[in-house]
Amino acid sequence: MDLKKAEQRALYLLQARDYTARQMLDKLKRAGCTEEVASQVVTSMQEYRYIDDLRYAGTYIRSYADSRSRRRIEQDLMQKGIRRETIRQAFSEWFEDGNIQDEQKMIADILRRKGYNKGEGGASEAGRMYRLLLRKGFSQGIVNKMLFSDSYFVDDDTST
């Protein structure tokens, strides 16, 4: 695929949704572009700000901050090819805008949806919930507090 067709393909793809630089590079290569042509197109799209990894990361954070842990969001963005420093900058800007992420509330909501009642089900049920929450990207510290410490557990009667 020549440069002109590759640019047209990139613009066509960008009409539907945003892409990270790496996602677009991969899309163009799968469509038959050489590495060199795909890189030129991505660089051009970045210069015109049609592709902007920082903007993509910020949008992704706003979309998932209420349902995914920070660690999970970071992992998702890194898999999409966004550099760690760009992710940190996007989170920093998000926090500077006055946003907060309440992981304790998220964990309490997950536990509630899963029907977890502290004290029922024994150690095996607590272990199952523990592993589930770790897979969702929550830190061991906050998971331990929410599952095993009476002062941090939010049950159905006290949540708002």
Summarize the SSE layout with pairings.
Layout: H1 3-16, H2 21-30, H3 35-47, H4 53-64, H5 70-79, H6 84-96, H7 103-113, H8 122-135, H9 140-148
Helix pairs in contact: 1-3, 2-3, 4-6, 8-9
Distance between the termini: 56 Å
Helix content: 55-70%
- Structural classification: mainly alpha
Which value, in Å, is the CA radius of gyration?
A: 21 Å
Mean pLDDT: 90
Q: What number of domains?
A: 2
One letter per element, helices H and strands E, the order comes to: HHHHHHHHH
Number of helices: 9
- What multimeric state do the chains show? single chain
How much beta, percentage-wise? under 5%
Question: The biggest beta sheet, please?
Answer: none
Describe the model:
By secondary structure, the chain is mainly alpha-helical. It has two domains: 3-96, no CATH class; 103-148. Helices cover 66% and strands 0% of the residues. The chain contains nine helices and no strands. The protein has helices at 3-16, 21-30, 35-47, 53-64, 70-79, 84-96, 103-113, 122-135, 140-148. The radius of gyration is 21 Å and the shape is elongated. The termini are far apart. 23% of the residues are buried. Residues 156-160 have low confidence and may be disordered.
Keywords, separated by commas or semicolons:
160 residues, mainly alpha, 2 domains, 9 helices, elongated
TL;DR?
With 160 residues, this protein is mainly α. It has helices at residues 3-16, 21-30, 35-47, 53-64, 70-79, 84-96, 103-113, 122-135, 140-148. The chain folds into two domains: 3-96, no CATH class; 103-148.
